[in-house]
């Protein structure tokens, strides 16, 4: 079983924000694969399906970003899931808007959702797709920035980044993550 966790915040107020690109990827994958992400389990909305002969679970934590690790731990315990079969998708201010970076270990880089996952799993080693949102302009608070919507001028960058993230997640279902990194990190 492979499981993909898109980090974000629940509720319509956060729907199109930079902090919710992980949710956007899960929504796109759900459309692409015909999976309904509506089951309320493990402090999350989840959906299960079969893609290319692999059981896949799509997960959107409903705990808010800073407590994402609660969902990951709950899912691992309930489904006896291995963290090595997970891909965590999230926003990253240290990556340029429109670009993605794949990693399989490292610190949280200040991302509170990742910090929570590290805290609840006891490891920094898990597969990640970091989606670039760049840093705010000087003088703008980080929380205001990550909770803001993408401007129209970044619409094409966002669409491309979502598509590449979905392609990387799909490729990783049937390929080792190291090979996925080699293909999608540029």
* Mean pLDDT value: 96
End-to-end gap: 28 Å
Q: What would the principal axes of the Cα set say about the shape?
A: globular
- How many H/I helical runs? 6
The percentage of residues in β strands lies in 15-25%
Strand count, sense and closure of the main sheet?
7 strands, mixed
Would you count the extended β strands for me? 7
CATH topology: Rossmann fold
- The level of helicity is 25-40%
CATH superfamily: Peptidyl-tRNA hydrolase
Q: Which class in CATH terms? A: Alpha Beta
Structural Rg: 15 Å
Structural class: alpha/beta
The count of domains is: 1
- Which blocks of ≥5 consecutive residues have pLDDT under 50? none
Query: Per CATH, which architecture?
Result: 3-Layer(aba) Sandwich
Which strands sit side by side, in order, in the main sheet? 2-3-4-1-5-7-6
